[in-house]
Structures are given as C-alpha cells and as structure tokens.
Specification:
CATH class of the largest domain in chain A: Alpha Beta
Number of strands of chain B: 4
Largest sheet of chain A: 11 strands, mixed
Number of helices of chain A: 19
Number of helices of chain B: 9
Strand order of the largest sheet of chain A: 1-2-4-3-7-8-11-12-13-14-27
Shape of chain B: globular
Shape of chain A: elongated
CATH topology of the largest domain in chain A: Rossmann fold
CATH superfamily of the largest domain in chain A: Alpha/Beta hydrolase fold, catalytic domain
Structural class of chain B: mainly alpha
Distance between the termini of chain B: 26 Å
Number of domains of chain A: 4
Largest sheet of chain B: 2 strands, antiparallel
Helix content of chain B: 55-70%
Strand content of chain B: under 5%
Mean pLDDT of chain B: 86
Structural class of chain A: alpha/beta
Number of strands of chain A: 37
Number of domains of chain B: 1
Radius of gyration of chain A: 46 Å
Oligomer: heterodimer
Order of helices and strands of chain B: EEHHHHHHEEHHH
CATH architecture of the largest domain in chain A: 3-Layer(aba) Sandwich
Distance between the termini of chain A: 50 Å
C-alpha cells in the first residue's frame, strides 16, 4: 500500500517533465578541416518555451558527452522562458567531424554557425538582423567553448562557463612557481590520458591511433605522453584553443564557475579567466563561483548552479533584476548538512571577487629544519592525492604522502579559527644532493590541516606541481603558489606544508634522486576574504515568530470555541434533581432518552427502573455531565448541569461499574481521587466510607488484586466521599452477596434520613421495592410512570412492584428481566 | 469557579493538582519501564563499545558523518552518540507513550468518568495531563544524557566533545551544546507528542494512541527518504528531526533548527487544539 502511495506521489512529478516540446534538427557547422571546406553536420535539439519570441541559450556539453547530457538543464532553462539549443560538438554524439579541442577555426566556427541559425529563427528575440539575443553556457569542454565563442563572436550577450580552462597548456602541464626558463610544467598524465582515451574510440567502437581526434591533436598528445615534450606546434595548438587568447575581447556578462574539487582545471584557471576579462574591460559584469564540485567529484551542487545560470541569463538576456553578489564560495567544512548528515554546504558571499590571494593576507610562521627527500626510481611508489573520476576519496586507502618522499613544515597551533579562501604562498629552498645539476626536478607542494589529535587533512586532495631545471647543491629559492582551497582550521589545529617528490596523477622522472628541502625566508602567506553567509530563505527568528503567531492565534481561537453552556434558569426548583424534556439522540440516530421529565425531592431514595436498554445509564451519565443532551435540561439543586459544572461537586456517583487505577491500592485511589476533586476544604469522611467499603486490610492492596465485589464496594465508597448531597448509584448491588446487599440497604436508608438524596438505577425490582421511597419507570428511553412506591402499590395491598411494573410496561416488554 | 453549599466547597482550579497527577502516573509500571530503558540503554551500549571493538572513522568532507566511531572518545561524545541512537526511536516512543497513553488509559480504566464527574473541568483535565506527560517526557530526555555522561565517564574518561568533522569543544561549551541538543530533540518530538495526545483523546485504547503517533512518524520518515518528492519534503514534520547536528558546527546554523522547532511546535499546537475542541464536546461513554 505504501508503494502505491509513493507511486501516486511520484507519478505527477514524472509527468511534469514529459511533453518537452523539443525538436531534433541538424545544423551545418564550420568546415570539416583546413583542407575540406564542407561543413560538419551538427546534431542539435531545440526546446521552445510557452511564450515566444524569447532569448536563446546555447548549451555545450563536456568532453566525452553529447547533447543528450544536456536535456535536464535545457528543460530547466526552457521552463524559465528561454529558447534552448543543445548540440553535440563535432566528433561527439552523432555530429560529424573530428575533435579539435575547441579550435577557433572548427568548434568555435560551429558555435558561430549555431548563432547564425538562431539569428534566422522567428521564435528567438532578435537584437538586429542576424543577431539573436543569445547566451552560451557549458561546463568543462563546453565552458571553454562558451568563453572562446563569446570572445570571437560579439553577438553573444551572456556567458556561463563552469570548471573549464583558461590556458590549456598550464592546465595539462602544471607549474606552481615562476621560473625563468620557458619550459612546460609537470604533465598531468593521468588526466590527459583519460581525456585522450575517450576520444580515440571511433563511433563504430573500433580503436585507431587517433580515433576521432584530428591528426594535429593526436600528434601533440603522443609527444607529451611519450616524452613529456611540448613542441612549438603543440604549444600553438593549445594556445589557440585557450580562452586566454581572447579573454581581452569578452564584453558579455560572464558567470565563471570553479570547482574546489578539481585537480584538472583548478581554481587558478577560472581565476585567470576572470582577471583577464576584468583587466581588459573592468565594467564587464563578472561573477565568480567557487562551488564544492569539480572534475574530482566533491559536493554535487548542480541544482544550485543550474538555478544560478538561469538567473544569470534572466538578468542579462531578459532584464530581470540581479540579486547576486560577484563572489560566492561554498564552505564544505565545519558544518554538517542536516538532511543528508553529510559534511556540507554553507554558501558564503562577498560583494566583489577578491582574487585568488584573498582580499587580505595573513602571515603564519612555519618551522622545520632542512629535510632530505628521495625521488624514487621509476616514480614508484607514488603518493595518491586525487584520481580522475574518483577524486580525493582514494586517500582513505592509499597514502597521500609517503615516508622518505615528503618534507613537512608545521606552524604552531593556531590561537583562533582560521578560514582560508584562495591560494597560499610560501618560499622554499631546494637543493640536490648530487654534485651535478639535476634537470627535471618534480616536486608537489600542499597545505594540510593537522588537528590537535594529529589527524591530517589534505583539503580537496589538491597539490601544486613544481618542475625545476638545473638544481645543484646550491639551494635554489622558489616561491610556490599552493593550491587554491576553501578550508577551515579550528583553534588548536596547525597548518602543515608538505613538499613531496611523487604524485600518482603526474608524469614522474624515472631517475632516482635525493633532494634537500628547507624553508626559505618569509612566512606562509594565507589568503583571507571577508565573506558573509548567504541568506537562504527567512532568517531563523522569523520561523519562530511565525510559529509564535500561529500558536497564539490557535490559543485565541480555542478560547472562543468553548462549548455553549445552558443558561441559569431562576424559575427552576431547588430540588436535588429536576429533569426537563431530556432527550439524547446518538450520532447513529439511536434515541437513547426520549423527552424525559421528572423531579426528585430531597431526602428521597428514588429507584430508576427499567429493563436493560431503557436509557437509565444514559440518563445518569447526562446527570453527571459526561454526556451532553441533544435537547432538554438537567438542573441539580437549581443549577444547570453541563460538563464540568460546579454543582457536580455535590453529586457522588457510581455508574456502570467502578473506575480505579489498578496499580494503586484502594486507599491510594480514594485519597488521590479526593485530592483531585477540588474540595480541599471539606472533610472527605474517609473513615465512614471505608467502613462501607468493608475491605479490611485489602484496602492497602493494589486494586488490580480485588474481586468484582470489592471493587464495587470501593466504588460506592468513592461515590460517597465527602458526603455528596445527591448520590447516583447504577446497579449498586452488582457483585455483592446477600448480607452485603442488606447492609448496603441500611446504609442508603440512613444516608437519605440525613436529608440527602439517593438515586438507584436497577433492573431488579425486588431490590428497588425494598429500598426506595419513590420510583421512576423507564422503557425505551421514555418515562412510563413515576410516583412513590406507596402510591404505585396503592390500594392493591399485597401486590408486588413486579406486577405493577409489568402492568405499566405491558406487552411492550420485549427485553426481559432476569 | 467556586460553589459553596451547606458542606460543599468546590474550587475548580484546585482539581487534579499536578502533584496528584504525577503520583498517579509515576507509580505506573509503564513509566518505570520507560525510565529504566533510558538508564539501561547507555549501560548496554557502553558495554558493547568497550568490549565489542570499534571500526575506524572516516572524516573527510563528503563522507557520511560518523558519530558512532567518535563515541568512545570520551563521556561527552558518548552522550552525543546516545542521543543520536535514541532520538529516532526510543525517545520518540517514550514521548508518544507519556502523551498518548495519558487520557486513553484513564478511559480504559473507567476512571476518566469519575474525574470528569468530580468535576475536573475538561480543559483543566487535558491541561494537567499534558503538562505531566510533557514533563515526564522531558525528564526522560534529560535523564538520558545525564546517565550517558556518567556511564561515559566511567567507561571512556572525560574527553572534550569532538564533532565528526574534527571540531573540539571545551568542557563547558560541550555541555552547553549537549544540553541544547537534548532540548532540540525534545522540541522536535513535540510533534509526536501532539499527535499522540490527540489520538489519546480520540481513542480509548492507550497503545493505539501511542502506535498511531509512532506510525505517523515512520511514514513521515519514509516519505522524507524519497528524493522524487523534492522540496515538498521540507514540509514534512520529521524533515528537520536531525537538525540538531547543526549544533555541532563551529558556526551554528540556526535556520534549520528554528524551522524544525517551529514546525514541531505548530503541529503540536494544532493537535492539542483539535484535541481540546473534540474533548470539550465528547460524550464520555467509556
């Protein structure tokens, strides 16, 4: 059944996303190659919103993907009112052509052809002839395309580029220090290999030397992978495919995202894009987001990013007001996500992008003597910090630094918590032990946080690769830019700089070498940014205020919703009980009491007679205020009876058996009942009722252990606590043996003799006959007769009440007496 | 309301005093068993952890928070773990028991009609019973960390309170956080208390009232686990039941705590209001 419920809840949601109004089409792109001018055929899907014409958004996919990956994002933007065009880049999906890594002449030309196509569509808002209002968005491979096309084509009105490169060469050949010679950095062999590997498989599944890559790119990769060599030709290829070549021409508002968990295109790449765009055109709206994701995985913030991208385009393509700040960063440390119980996301904001070195810097001294490290022969074993597709999770099982290969320098424990947002810098000295200068010195620097209990964390699993040449015994001082991270160190934690010789993800030298690593002058400089948590939804106190208002309103409403009470009637007699036209109809339409009227005089013992189901008990419950009459009135001593009526304090009752707390003794029950009755000033007359109960020592045993008769006697005793002026007893002799019944009769007669009133309901006529002064006969809810016993028996001396009763009830008596 | 006659002095506001209701409830086996469980659980868990061994923790960002593996670090952490273990079920059942059983059990003993005929005004009866039920529930929720702390002290020593992400709180700060967590657990369970109390008024079967509240919480938890429901889940009453984890951050995020507390209090208020409205008009036939 639960399954059905879940299905019923999920189905409508699923239905919402179908009916997408999407149309598949082919678009002619740029030339096949430099020798073949025939256009490639691009496989595209266009999604149209409800209202047209509308601004367009072109979506580009990541490396190895195709337009089908973009469907969810496309539908989201479509629902926000954009015409969305998603297409597969050349060499991917069913688009023709070879992969040229976003070369201006090919992939960028394709993007421009797509914009040309949008310029001819009547359902796209046009800013001029052939100039559609269009935004470009993509992540990774698609992000670089968005930036490149945005630079080359002035018709682009807004850009959103996530986790992409600024400079392909420095992305693939990492170098975290500035050195004089123009050599490439440390080759990210694992990343480059997985990139290339996904492109060499042909559409038919066969694998060839170059697969879907152009020969130029194929050759460039082979060179680098085999020998770590970058030829001038390769360098030119990479430069042309790098946004850095045209960032100075971008004037469209640009949203740049960077992943904190990204060892492929780290934050430094996104930083370069932003800085170059702003350097050329400082007025360009640019927003930088350091989210928790990236190529290494990390925190999945795709929903937030999707929303942010839509907002960016809504602002710059539709003119909606902007509500964002120029810098947002996700803090994934220090907080625990409530829903997923995972470490989680606080969004921090700053009005302006402070750059990768922060808006201010703090200096933290490091200590540690010169340490000798070994670069192992063949580069194994290597530390594992982050693996493509798996990220930094591997360090749970594999070491992220290896003894003998790493030098460590620690700070003193921090006196106060510290939040790092950006890249730290530090100066170190490197020297070779060997007398001959060593070329191809590969080192990896990282900043770690060590908690007071010794636990070391490597934020995002990121390391900074360094490649030096001609390092001799004379120490060479370099300034290292450590990875850009977002991390929080608590008071008592310390920071640790680790310089190691290996990392699994990079091409490592094969020769074994020994180096000495030491701290150079100058402290560790860490970046700080003045950020505020982004407000999501109403502030905390508003929820509480809202709750308080609702609770107050409920209380107010409840105060007004008290049941109506019968009004006082000064005319009514002061008799112990006056019942007037009393009727009770239950919900199921059963008429339990029907227009009952009678009065009970003080000092009398009234017998309420009638077969089972006559309405005796219902009447008694109404007299006790337990059941509200449908109509009619009950007055006791001239006061109206209703639930909780004060006059009920003058009435003692035993109806339908006693009710006690089984875990307490008889005495405790009576004591607690009396203390609950609100008659603290009165004498309960406990000795008297205990005598009536006649329980002996059993009075101090738990009620659970009592027989029915014992409970019945205790019930009568409870009803008589405080000597009520009116005593209601429903079938009081149930469970009593003959001597006890006789004793009970005497008790009741004496009670009435004191001017108090007793009402006994019973179906045993003889009992009533022997005890009562007056009788009310009921049958099927109606009053059949009332009067004194003497009157009823009248002159028929020698007749028994039973005969009189049968006489009154007549043939109608269907429910017999026992 | 006061009435005075020959020898009857009745003061409505003195009916069913809290002291009397406490005595009536405290002597019940059910109450004692609930409290005994609260005391026994930390002892059993401490023994299991002391002699059962414990796997290592993983605490990188993105890894599921592992409070359990931190449990043996010291008394404060052990206390936290006990709260984590019990908030979801034991404390829920106890809260539902104290608030759900209270009126229904009187009905099942037939003593309800004699209290009302005494007369204890109906709203007063509910008020007194609810106060006692909530105080007993709060007592159990407060007792658990106190007992856990002492058991933890004996078993694991007095380490500072450490959060799963490597934060560490000083002694006083740690105790404050634990107290705040216990309080939040209580507030977040008010929702179940309200539902149980409403059921208690509607039914004469005490365990039915308790069970209904527990089942409702479980259904809410199941729905909360369905990703397809998306943001709708934010409106489930149990959605923020673990928001107290936020109290373990260096910078406390009050939003979820406030939101969770607000929902719970509002649902509680609505349930109690409906219970009062119904009880005001109910024909007592038990």
């Amino acid at each position: 059944m639960l399954g059905g419920l879940i299905l019923a809840l999920v189905m409508p949601l699923a239905a919402c996303s179908s009916g997408d109004n999407a149309q598949e089409l082919r678009i002619s792109g740029g030339p096949q190659s430099s020798t073949n001018a025939a256009p490639v055929s691009l496989d595209a899907t266009i999604y149209r919103p409800a209202t047209i014409p509308a601004p367009a958004v072109v979506l580009a996919h990541g490396f190895g993907g195709s337009k089908t990956d973009l469907e969810e994002r496309a539908l989201h933007l479509r629902d926000r009112g954009f015409v969305v065009l998603a297409y597969s880049a050349r060499g991917f999906g069913t688009s023709t052509g070879k992969i040229s890594m976003n070369a201006p002449k090919f992939e960028v030309a394709d993007a421009r052809a797509v914009i040309d196509f949008l310029g001819r569509q009547s359902d796209v808002t046009q800013d001029g002839v052939g100039d559609p209002r269009v935004g470009l968005a993509g992540g990774s491979y698609g992000g670089a395309l968005a930036l490149l096309a945005g630079g080359y084509d002035s018709r682009v009105d807004a850009i959103a580029a996530d986790i992409t490169w600024n400079d392909l060469e420095s992305s693939l050949f990492g170098q975290s220090t500035e050195i004089a010679t123009q050599t490439p950095g440390v080759f990210k062999s694992l990343w480059a290999g997985s990139f290339f590997g996904s492109g060499v498989v042909n559409r038919d599944g066969s694998v060839t030397e170059c697969g879907r890559f152009t020969t130029e790119w194929c050759r460039a990769y082979s060179e680098a992978a085999a020998d770590g060599v970058v030829s001038a030709a390769s360098r030119a290829l990479m430069a042309a495919s790098s946004p850095s070549s045209i960032t100075n021409r971008i004037t469209a508002p640009t949203l740049i995202g960077a992943g904190q968990s990204d060892s492929l295109f780290p934050i430094t790449q996104a930083n370069a894009n932003v800085e170059q765009i702003l350097a050329a055109h400082p007025q360009t709206p640019v927003k930088m987001v350091w989210h928790g994701g990236g190529h290494d995985g990390g925190l999945d913030e795709s929903e937030r990013l999707q929303e942010m991208t839509a907002g960016w385009f809504a602002t710059y393509l539709m003119g909606e007001p902007s509500s964002t700040t120029d810098f947002e960063v996700t803090d994934t440390t220090g907080a625990i996500d409530v829903q997923s119980s995972r470490a989680a996301a606080t969004i921090l904001q700053a009005p302006a992008y402070p750059g990768i070195h922060g808006s201010s810097q703090q200096s933290i001294p490091l200590a540690g003597s010169k340490q000798r490290v070994r670069a192992p022969a063949g580069g194994v074993p290597a530390a594992v910090t982050s693996v493509p597709g798996i990220g930094s999770r591997v360090s749970a099982v594999l070491p992220n630094s290896i003894p003998g290969q790493a030098a460590a320098f620690d700070s003193a424990p921090l006196p106060a918590p510290l939040t790092l947002i950006g890249a730290s810098t530090v100066n170190i000295e490197v020297s070779a032990v060997d007398a001959r200068p060593v070329d191809d010195v590969v080192l990896f620097a990282s900043l770690r946080i060590v908690s007071a209990n010794g636990r070391q964390t490597l934020p995002s699993g990121l390391v900074s690769p360094i490649l030096l040449n001609s390092v001799g015994p004379e120490p060479q001082t370099i300034t290292v830019e450590l990875p850009a991270i977002v991390a929080t160190a608590e008071a008592g934690d310390s920071l640790r700089l680790v310089v190691s010789t290996t990392d699994f993800a990079y091409r490592l030298p094969v020769q074994s070498q020994l180096y000495d690593i030491a701290l150079a002058d100058g402290p560790l400089t860490i970046p700080q940014v003045d950020v505020q948590p982004a407000s999501t939804g109403p502030a905390a106190y508003w929820w509480l205020v809202g709750a308080a208002v609702i609770v107050f309103a409920i209380a107010l409403l409840l105060g007004r919703l008290r049941p109506r009470r019968p009004e006082d009637d000064p005319e009514v007699s002061k008799h112990p009980l006056t019942i007037t036209s009393l009727t009770k109809r239950y919900n199921d339409d059963y008429l339990a009491v029907d227009d009952l009227t009678f009065t009970v005089a003080a000092g009398s013992i009234l017998g309420l007679l009638g077969p089972n189901g006559a309405g005796k008990t219902t009447t008694m419950r109404m007299v006790m205020g337990l059941i509200t009459p449908t109509s009619g009135a009950i007055h006791a001593f001239g006061e109206p009876v209703f639930p909780g009526a004060p006059v009920l304090a003058r009435i003692g009752a035993l109806v339908e058996g006693p009710g006690f707390l089984p875990h307490l003794t008889g005495r405790q029950n009576l004591d607690l009942y009396w203390r609950s009755a609100g008659r603290g000033a009165d004498d309960p007359g406990l000795d008297e009722v205990l005598e009536i109960a006649d329980l002996g020592t059993a009075i101090d045993k738990r009620v659970r252990t009592y027989s029915q008769g014992m409970r019945q006697r205790l019930g009568i005793a409870q009803a008589m606590l405080g000597r009520p002026d009116l005593l209601l007893l429903d079938e009081p002799t149930n469970g009593l043996d003959p001597p006890q019944i006789k004793a009970m009769r005497d008790v009741l007669r004496r009670y009435a003799a004191s001017g108090r009133t007793v009402i006994i309901s019973s179906h045993l006529l003889s009992e009533v006959e022997q005890t009562c002064t007056d009788v009310v006969v009921m049958h099927r809810g109606r009053l059949l007769g009332a009067g004194s016993v003497v009157e009823l028996l009248g002159d028929k001396a020698g007749t028994r009440l039973e005969d009189v009763f049968l006489d009154i009830v007549g043939d109608d008596l269907t429910v017999g007496h026992p | 309301m006061t009435t005075q006659h020959s020898d009857v002095t009745y003061v409505a506001r003195t009916t069913l005093p809290l002291r009397v209701e406490f005595v009536r409830q405290l002597r019940r086996r059910r109450t004692l068993v609930a409290y005994a469980l609260v005391v026994a659980l930390p002892v059993l868990v401490a023994l299991a952890m002391k002699f059962g061994g414990n796997a290592g923790a993983s605490n990188r960002p993105g890894a599921p928070v592992d409070l359990v593996s931190l449990a043996t670090a010291g008394a404060a952490n052990f206390t936290l773990t006990m709260l984590f273990f019990s908030a979801g079920f034991l404390l829920l059942v106890i809260v539902a028991l104290f608030c759900g059983d209270t009126v229904a059990s009187e009905a099942s003993w037939s003593s309800l009609r004699y209290l009302l005929a005494a007369p204890v005004p109906r709203r007063r009866l509910l008020k007194q019973k609810l106060i006692v039920g909530l105080v007993l529930a709060l007592g159990a929720i407060a007792l658990l960390p106190v007992v856990s702390y002492f058991i933890g002290l004996i078993a694991f020593g007095s380490g500072p309170l450490g959060s799963p992400l490597g934060l560490s709180f000083a002694f006083g700060e740690g105790l404050m956080r634990i107290a705040a967590i216990a309080l939040y657990v209580f507030i977040s369970l008010l929702f179940a208390a309200g539902v149980a109390f409403l059921m208690s008024v509607l039914t004469d079967a005490p365990l039915g009232a308790v069970g209904a509240a527990v089942v409702l919480v479980i259904v809410s938890n199941v729905l909360d686990a369905i990703d397809a429901l998306g943001a709708l889940r934010e409106w489930l009453p149990t959605h923020y039941s673990q928001a107290w984890l936020g109290l373990l951050s260096s910078e406390i995020d009050w939003t979820d705590l406030a939101r969770g507390a607000s929902y719970s209090i509002v649902v509680f208020a609505i349930c109690v209001a409906v219970a009062v409205f119904i009880f005001d008009r109910k024909d007592i036939v038990s």
